[in-house]
Design goal:
This protein has 188 residues and is α+β, with helices and mostly antiparallel strands. It has 2 domains: 1-72; 74-170, Alpha-Beta Plaits (2-Layer Sandwich), CATH 3.30.70. Helices cover 53% and strands 21% of the residues. The protein contains 3 helices and 4 strands, in the order ααββαββ. A 4-stranded antiparallel beta sheet has the order 1-2-4-3.
Length: 188
């Protein structure tokens, strides 16, 4: 069978197109798909590494504060921790010029390595006094944090406010009732 020049070119073009299609299906498309998957995996790993670095930096930043809290006020007895917070809040409120109408322990959770005791306080004072109380809580050497707060005006246009605040503290249970503290910052 003899092919004309035009048929030869058509045959060569067709065979080239089929060969290119086969190379694309067999090699190029899977290679590009694998490259895309590798890029996605790489981006996820870089993000994870970045988060790990941020966590390590935060741990280094918080380790001194943790040591300070442990030395200044971390106790192993929940009753003592409760008493310290009740007295501290009462003293801070009195210093700030706040009239407390309620100050009581709210709940006790012992499901973690650092059990938490929550407290509820409410009272009356001006904005400056409430800000001073919050500042004292925030800068306290004992382990305490504000978990919830509500402020409302007693009368429209006056600086006489009612507030409710929820704070919590942690205590370090005795080793017999807690697992080894390897997750606690500053401990090895």
């Amino acid at each position: 069978m003899v092919l004309s020049k035009r048929e030869k070119y058509a045959l060569i073009g067709t065979l080239t197109a089929v060969a290119l299609l086969a190379v694309d299906r067999i090699a190029f498309s899977p290679l590009m798909e694998r490259r895309s998957q590798t890029q996605t995996t790489h981006e996820a790993l870089v993000s994870e590494l970045s988060q790990a670095h941020a966590l390590m930096a935060r741990r280094q930043q918080l380790a001194p504060k943790w040591q300070q809290m442990v030395q200044a006020g971390m106790v192993s007895d929940p009753a003592e921790a409760e008493s310290r917070i009740l007295h501290a809040i009462g003293d801070w409120a009195q210093e700030a010029g706040i009239s407390l109408s309620l100050l009581k322990p709210d709940r006790l959770t012992e499901k973690s390595r650092l059990p938490e005791i929550a407290f509820q306080a409410s009272g009356v004072g001006n904005l400056r006094a409430i800000a001073r109380l919050l500042w004292r809580v925030q800068t306290a050497a004992i382990p305490i944090k504000v978990t919830e707060m509500q402020v409302g005006a007693r009368k429209e246009g006056e600086d006489n406010l009612t507030f409710q605040i929820r704070v919590s503290t942690v205590y370090s249970p005795p080793p017999s009732s807690a697992a080894a503290g390897s997750d606690v910052p500053g401990r090895s």
